[in-house]
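Hey, I'm writing a tutorial for new members on how sequence and structure tokens pair up, and I'd like a real worked example in the thread rather than a made-up one. If someone can provide the structure for the chain below, I'll link this post from the tutorial.
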Amino acid sequence: MFGKGYGKNNEPVRGYVLTFIIAMIFILVAELNAIAPLISNFFLAAYALINFSTFHASLAKPVGWRPTFKYYNMWLSLVGSILCVAVMFLISWVTALLTFAAILFLYMVVNYRKPDVNWGSSTQAQTYKNALTSVQQLNNVDEHVKNYRPQIMVLCGMPSSRPSLVDFAYLITKQLSLIVCGHIVKANLNIRQRAALREKAYSWLLIQKIKGFYCAVDDMNFEEGAKALLQAYGVGKLRPNILLMGFKENWATCESADREQYFNVLHKALDMHLSICILRVPGGLDFSKTITFGDETLSPSSNQSDLSKSKSISNLSIPRNQSYTKVSHGASMELMYQQRL
């Protein structure tokens, strides 16, 4: 509300007015001793947060954090933060509580509104560090039947085009283990097209409240792409141990090459000692004809001038029933392009 910008410099005029009103209120009190504890607590709270931020940045060790002060020490920053908090309560425990309440309120407002900005905070670096450490520690854990978790590679193409496969995988994992939605595109994709596919996939997973991952491979047929996903996807022990596919409904009428690719993928999964699930539902699994994702089509042959016409990458989409891997039919189709009328 108060951060809305005006003018060519996007100045937050409302914020300036709010700051002016708050400053005038304290000036009109006309009693320095009455407001001194509160002002001192606000300054000490700012110093405490700065000291703790430097400590946490040193703890997370992001690449961009390289303090050059000769006598800097991360533990000294932590001690400084604790001392600032202690002095706040020594000055006035009432104003200290009011200060913490104000800080908590501001934090809750920011957390509730979730502004679309990337703070580049040390918590992001700490999240990466914790994830990397956990994966490395997981490699040292011996596997046991009591700790078995199904980690599923779902060959569903775009998740929204075959929701039955993704929902079935979710029923197995209950968001307690790994789900990977594998997408095989026969045509060659550039970086913008891959980003558009990734955005569409994760947006759908977020809307469906499914905690999973999406991985696309391009410039491969169905057999080559499936083998690449099975062999290369994963880190350490966080890798699929189950292959989930759709049943090949047209096995009796399809081309022999398509049928051979389908069975070669099954044989490859068995050679890798993976479990195999094949889901068959009435009417097939492909719902891509009934799903729309935007108003523009995405073409690998599009040059930079064509792509620049798009307002944002979220508006890029691929024609329905053209680019998605035909898992339930056992083959990948060419990525064809058409302009929606």
